[in-house]
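Class, discuss our next protein.
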Amino acid sequence: MKVFTEAIIANHNQLSGIKRYETPDLERWADTFQCLMEIPSYIGSRAMRGYIEDPDVKFIVTERSPEKWVRSIDNTIGEAVKAAHKFPLNILKRFDSELGHFLHLATVMYWAYADGANPGDADSEAALYQNYVE
């Protein structure tokens, strides 16, 4: 989860000081995996360049309507972000590091997809929609 969080920050915040992932970085990180899901949304297309021309690498692209995607993000990641600030998770995340990292990852993901907005903010759904169609 720390790797995912770092990758999202590097990919979506050029001023973060974190180097964006390249193909060799992804290979070190996912060395033994045979299948990866959602990776471009975490690390960006830059790290995927080395795989695009490889005929043995398969990509499955699923397109959804922007409205359904926004609703899905709000109902999954958005709910995790909101729950992180309510009892009991607001306390448990401080004692369970894996839970804390997961909730931090969810928050960073939502911020990246919603241009820094939080779930329920006035501009969050518009930002999610715009980032999906771009």
Notes: The two ends are 26 Å apart (CA to CA). Residues 23 and 50 are 6 Å apart (CA to CA).
